[in-house]
Design brief:
heterodimer; A: 112 residues; mainly beta; 5-stranded antiparallel beta sheet; 0% helix; 54% strand; B: 116 residues
Chain lengths: 112, 116
């Protein structure tokens, strides 16, 4: 039973355009959400997070949007760069310090 | 300086063997974890451990056991390896939330285990 789902296994975007990665969750107890970026042969690295008291969090080119009623969050990358090509994992927890439940990941390919 | 380091990076072994994967973190974090990335790329929690409590995911076979000689280390020992144990195993650490601010996890680079 997947509590965190990333329904798009891959996404291809042209350099300079916007990348939108989506994530859905089912557990209404989740109140803290994170995005991780993973390059091949490396561990996932923390990218950006959002708590349920907010609906938007921005950090440079990265913005995460949270729609609690739809149990949906998205990561926007603007403008996309070839170096953004990686696998992006969405994760959620019930409480910011608690164990994370990960989605299956979305592979983003940014074409020059 | 590597914050969370795992060794070995690759491990190929025969069925039935016993093996260990080591993990060390130099971040001073309170909690360490082992995750398994399965063939579908899902990261599933196996164990979490701090100096107070070991939490085991009940789906993990008891052939897997975490061993923590001290706060900075959490090793994963696997007995009687099976073909289905082939996967990438990630170690991670985190600091307890302070002041309502969480820092997420810091992951190691993974250990690719292949059981033949």
């Amino acid at each position: 039973d997947q509590q965190v789902k990333q329904n798009s296994p891959s996404l291809s975007v042209q350099e300079g355009r916007i990348s939108i990665l989506n994530c859905d969750y089912t557990n209404s107890m989740f109140d803290y959400f994170l995005w991780y970026k993973k390059y091949p042969a490396e561990g996932p690295t923390f990218l950006i997070s959002i708590s349920s008291i907010k609906d938007k969090n921005e950090d440079g080119r990265f913005t995460v949007f949270l729609n609690k009623s739809a149990k949906h969050l998205s990561l926007h990358i603007v403008p996309s760069q070839p170096g953004d090509s990686a696998v992006y994992f969405c994760a959620a927890s019930a409480g910011a310090g608690n164990m994370l439940t990960f989605g299956g990941g979305t592979r983003l390919m940014v074409k020059p | 300086d590597t914050a969370v380091s795992q060794t070995p990076k690759y491990l190929v072994t025969q069925m039935g063997n016993d093996k260990s994967i080591k993990c060390e973190q130099n971040l001073g974090h309170d909690t360490m974890y082992w995750y398994k990335q399965d063939s579908k790329k899902f990261l599933k929690i196996m164990f979490s451990y701090n100096n107070k409590e070991l939490i085991i995911n009940e789906t993990v076979p008891n052939r897997f056991s975490p061993k923590s000689p001290d706060k900075a280390h959490l090793n994963l020992h696997i007995n009687s390896l099976e073909l289905g144990d082939s996967a990438v195993y990630f170690c991670a650490s985190s600091q307890e939330v302070q002041g309502g601010i969480a820092y997420g996890y810091t992951f190691g680079s993974g250990t690719r285990l292949t059981v033949v």
